[in-house]
């Protein structure tokens, strides 16, 4: 049994030495699974023209403030500076944070911001849009709950980046002072 344990320990020691692999794969997986999702979501909140970020369409308010939008008779002109600022900030976050993660620039901060964004997104889906059927449940036989199952995996992936950083193939590493 000892030769088998020795072989196992040798193999796992090599995996532990490859500490660079986990954050690199986490960023690659984020790019493959979530980058286009968030970029497309941001595109739905852009107004017309090159400065469309600063003139969100009514659909942007409907996505972010569904109940408040209904309360004002679906008139986005009834919203004030606060609502506009939240929509613009949220839209910018949907573009900037994912790109920072993929580039590996300010990765820990960007991943932390994305976790906050996902929390707000989930709460808006539940309380704003009333999508309680998308909640799902943990420890059941179904893995398709959009909020608890899917977004828990997103948060776990981002947590790896917070704990491990961006890895060696990143702008964070390139810009870090040499020690």
Automatic annotation (TrEMBL):
It is found in: Cell membrane. Keywords: Cell membrane, Membrane, Transmembrane, Transmembrane helix. InterPro entries: DoxX, DoxX-like_oxidoreductase. It comes from the Bacteria. It is a multi-pass membrane protein. Belongs to the DoxX family. This is DoxX subfamily protein, putative. It comes from Sulfitobacter indolifex HEL-45.
């Amino acid at each position: 049994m000892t030769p088998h344990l020795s072989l196992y320990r040798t193999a796992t020691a090599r995996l532990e030495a490859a500490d660079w692999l986990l954050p690199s794969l986490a960023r690659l997986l984020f790019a493959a699974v979530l980058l286009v999702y968030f970029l497309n979501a941001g595109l739905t909140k852009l107004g017309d023209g090159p400065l469309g970020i600063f003139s969100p369409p009514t659909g942007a308010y409907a996505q972010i403030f569904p109940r408040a939008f209904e309360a004002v008779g679906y008139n986005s002109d009834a919203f004030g500076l606060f609502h506009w600022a939240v929509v613009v900030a949220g839209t910018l976050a949907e573009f900037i944070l994912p790109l920072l993660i993929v580039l590996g620039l300010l990765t820990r901060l960007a991943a932390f911001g994305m976790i906050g964004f996902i929390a707000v997104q989930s709460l808006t889906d539940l309380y704003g849009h009333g999508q309680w059927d998308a909640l799902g449940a943990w420890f059941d036989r179904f893995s398709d709950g959009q909020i608890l199952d899917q977004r828990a995996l997103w948060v776990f992936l981002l947590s790896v980046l917070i704990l491990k950083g961006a890895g060696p193939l990143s702008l964070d590493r390139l810009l870090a002072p040499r020690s």
